[in-house]
Amino acid sequence: MWGIGIFIFIMIILLMINNFCSTEMFRSFSKSYGVMC
């Protein structure tokens, strides 16, 4: 439960980074959850 909350919190911080869409983490994340920039 806490692990998921911390993960979401980190993702929100990463969304504030301008080049977030170009990171490998986002690519794997978007493939897993179908999230678009």
Characterization of this structure:
The structure is a single chain. The model has no long low-confidence stretch (mean pLDDT 73). The chain has helices at residues 2-15, 24-33. The protein has one domain. The radius of gyration is 10 Å and the shape is flat. 0% of the residues are buried. Helix content is 65%, strand content 0%. It is mainly alpha-helical and 37 residues long.
What can be said about this structure in brief?
By secondary structure, the protein is mostly helical.
Tell me the layout of helices and strands.
Blueprint: H1 2-15, H2 24-33
How many strand elements?
A: 0
> Which percent bin holds the helix content?
55-70%
Helix-strand string: HH
Low-confidence stretches: none
Total domain units? 1
State the main characteristics.
37 residues, mainly alpha
